[in-house]
Amino acid sequence: MAGEEVPSLTALLCSVLRPNPPPLFGGQLFELYRLQTELLRRRREREMMERDRRRRQYLRRRRAFLLSSIAAILSLITSTSRPVWVRNRTAGQNFWATAESFDDDQWKAQFRVSRATFDYLVELIGPPRRRLAITLWWFARSGEYRSIADMFGVGIATVCIIVRQVTVAIVERLYRRFVSLPSGQRLDDTIRGFRQRRYPQCAGAIGGTHIPIAPPRDNPEHYLNRRGWHSVILQAVVDHDVRQGNNIFWCRRVFQKSLLSDGVEIPLHLIGDASFPLKPWLMKGYGERHQLSPEQRRFTFALASARSVVDAAFARLKGRWRCLLKKSDIDVSMMPRVVAACCVLHNVCQQRGDGFLPEWSFETDPSGNYLVQPETDEYEGDAYCTAEVIRHAITYDLLAVLQS
Fold first, then answer.
1. What DSSP string runs through 47-110?
2. In degrees, to the nearest 5, what angle opens at C-alpha 200 toward C-alphas 383 and 381?
3. Full-model pTM
4. Locate the DDE Tnp4 domain: which residues (predicted)?
5. Cα angle: 65, vertex 168, 98; to 5 degrees
6. Which DSSP string corresponds to 349-389?
7. Rounded to 10 degrees, what is the CA torsion of 97, 103, 104, 107?
């Protein structure tokens, strides 16, 4: 147990400082030191073996991908009679040939968006329908390129190229339009929505989630989380309506409204969990390290209840776009664009009323073998400041603030 190692180590250090420790006590400490050293040595050997195995596996996959890419490039050089991503197949020989005849329910089950939303995306982005369909299929399942190539009648390397190109197009053309912090009437609706959740002056809830990735070639240890798997972190602001928001760096220019409570100005702010610092524009609940008053417990509960929209939004985002749940072979430098594109598509579906189907929920999927999110540490750098004054005012005058 971690709680037992600290006093043991302290006892060992004390024995070193004492010139004549009791023989029995000194022998026990030496045996403990020897056992701990042996345990650490074995643990490091296992970690090195596992790291070496993962690296060999990654190199094999990378070599296979490079060979397939070279083959695709050579085929382009020797043939100019047709586009890069089209193969000569007769109608009916692949999945895409029959997809256009799907009814609305079948279409949405396969591509995670309704046919109307799909047509809307084609109009906004402009790629051929098959290119967009390939990309949505990969977002929804993160399947192997070979199986997707067979289903849509294209080359393996072409699938990779299409996914990258359409992903970039979604981000470049739609991100600023569909992913932004609220303002104007939408900001008023957001404040009202959180007030109905019994929390005042809130412009959004902020949270983070780990997105699995394959071990990168360069500095893989920089991406290793405490659960032992590699990931990048998505940090997002979510409104009361479970819509994905923008990142925290855009907050200060938007939140300009405030109200007074007993002479204390309470600005619009975000709400976060214990891992975030306490700021005038970012409130969080009280930690459990100290005895809390009834008012502090009520405030903490109200904030946590309002902030639950973050978990709901991430669950829907990952449930619809399963590429955010599984490790993929896509390069880590491309992952931020993939995540951003999925957030754009999430918001497009939300704004168009393109609902989330219950069977997409990965939390209730008995066949799912998904990675457990790492636990977060409580931020311990908070000091008494203006933010604490604001939190105190809300805490002890919560009902009055809600009614103002």
1. HHHHHHHHHHHHHHHHHHHHHHHHHHHHHHHH--SS-TT-----TTSSHHHHHTT--HHHHHHH
2. 15
3. 0.73
4. 207-347
5. 70
6. HHHTT-PPPGGG-GGG-TT--PPPPPP-PPP----SSHHHH
7. -30
